[in-house]
Amino acid sequence: MHETSLSQSILRAVLAELQRIDPPPLRLKRVRVVAGSDHPVVPDHVISAYATEAQGTPAEGSVLELSIAPMLGRCTACGWRGEIADFACGSCGSLDLELERRDAVRLQELEVEEADGEGGR
Ligand SMILES: [Zn+2]
Question: Cα of 83 to ligand 1 centre, how many Å?
Answer without folding.
Answer: 12
